[in-house]
Specification:
The protein contains 15 helices and eight strands. It has 409 residues and is of the alpha/beta class. The chain has two domains: 5-298, TIM Barrel, CATH 3.20.20.70; 313-399, no CATH class. It starts with a helix and ends in a 10-residue tail after the last helix.
């Protein structure tokens, strides 16, 4: 049966919900005021966020959900009994342009199952990006999920047209990939990521003539990791993320909560984490990147190496390290202030600036914008001391969410 474009769109946009995406932050300035179509900033990208924090301002679709691989955790695997569809490259180009003209979307996020071969699939994806840029002057944001098994020449060309490239590491450990996605090679995945990092570095260096080479994936590269499919704990997941950031200069690691597939015959652990676990991992990831925490520190509160689902990771860490508190706001070093619950990076910078000119009082922190509901038990300053609150036995209960009455029906 031949599907209409609308029917394909319904199938392939729904199938793309398993791909974590991002907005166009971090790329270069481009707009169409001097010709072309689209923009990467200002009115060009209108950021909208889902409840779990993902940006949904892009046309996010799969080119196809046909796939020759049989990854146990993937709903689009070859053995899955799911309805299939496939866009032609011209159809994806047309959809992107028409949706943009109608102000429905501000860019394209394109992923795909593997059809025929990795190279054949990657060639079609590159053709789409090339056509948008060269044939239609599209200057909006493009994020391509690249295929690590494709030839490096194709990945190199993709980086010339896309703002961001992403290559999925799939699962937290190499053993898990070998077990549940045996057709994929962890070494190949990491090799492709290293190549993207190298190409990005080279694109920033001037040639012997003094000219810079063409920009290559100016918004960087990212990756996606499925959590909950293989039973890895949060310490393992966050430790892997730390290595990925360090080795490949990633902009983001995206965590995707695993949903068991009803018709799967694979012996997966079937540990279905709630979305709150995914949310806690994002919070912990943020603390590692901007607050100086390590994966071991964040997950040390529980013997199983997992994050506390009831409390945000920084607050859970502070409750387990009360011997470091209360912190004297007027004199404490920046790194210690960053570890105070309720203090964000901007708040800490404002504190450092303000305290050079005066002795801070409680009301000053209110004006600065600190979250004093969380910070109160962990700080001292003029007109405020927590007294015995920091060490009180019921301090955790003050922050934990209230119990819920479960329904019997």
């Amino acid at each position: 049966m031949t599907l209409t474009l609308t029917e394909k769109l319904a199938i392939l946009s729904d199938a793309a919900r398993y791909d974590a995406s991002c907005a166009s932050s971090g790329t270069t300035r481009r707009d169409s005021t001097k010709g072309g179509l689209g923009s990467t900033e200002g009115s060009g990208i209108c950021h909208a966020y889902a409840p779990d924090g993902r940006c949904i301002s892009l046309l996010k679709i799969l080119m196809t959900n046909f796939c020759i691989y049989d990854c146990a955790y993937c709903v689009n695997r070859v053995s899955s009994n799911t309805k299939r569809a496939r866009f032609t490259p011209d159809e994806v180009v047309t959809l992107t342009l028409e949706f943009y003209r109608r102000n429905y979307i501000e860019g394209l996020f394109l992923s795909s199952g593997i059809i025929r071969s990795p190279d054949a699939t990657m060639e079609d994806m590159v053709q789409i990006a090339r056509s948008l840029r060269q044939d239609h002057g599209f200057k909006g944001y493009i994020h391509l999920k690249t295929i690590p098994d494709a030839t490096q020449e194709l990945i190199d060309e993709a980086g010339l047209y896309a703002d961001r490239l992403s290559i999925n590491v799939e699962l937290p450990t190499e053993h898990a990939v070998q077990t549940y996605a045996p057709e994929k090679s962890p070494a190949t995945i990491r090799g492709a990521m290293a190549r993207v990092k190298t190409r990005r570095t080279l694109s920033k260096d001037k040639t012997h003539t003094g000219k810079r080479p063409p920009k290559f994936a100016p918004a960087g590269q990212s990756t996606q990791m499925i959590v909950g499919a293989d039973g890895s704990n949060d310490q393992t997941i966050l430790g892997q993320s730390t290595r990925l950031y360090g080795d490949y200069g990633l902009r983001r690691v995206y965590y995707s909560a695993f949903s068991p597939i009803p018709d799967s015959s694979a012996k997966l652990p079937l540990i279905q984490p709630p979305l709150i676990r995914e949310h806690r991992l994002y919070q912990a990831d943020w603390l590692m990147r901007f607050y100086g925490f390590s994966a071991t520190e964040i997950t040390a509160a529980r013997p199983d190496g997992n994050l506390d689902l009831q409390l945000d990771p920084k607050l859970a860490w502070a409750l387990e390290n009360r011997h470091l508190f209360p912190v004297p706001v007027q004199t404490a070093e920046k790194q210690l202030l960053l570890r105070v619950p309720g203090f964000g990076t901007r708040t800490v910078q404002r504190i450092l600036t303000a305290r050079r000119h005066r002795t801070l009082a409680y009301e000053d922190l209110t004006r600065i914008g600190a979250n004093l509901k969380n910070a109160r038990p962990f700080i001292t300053l003029r007109h405020w001391s927590p007294g015995a609150l920091t060490d009180s036995a019921d301090l955790r209960a003050r922050f934990a969410p209230p119990p819920e009455q479960l329904s019997l029906f």
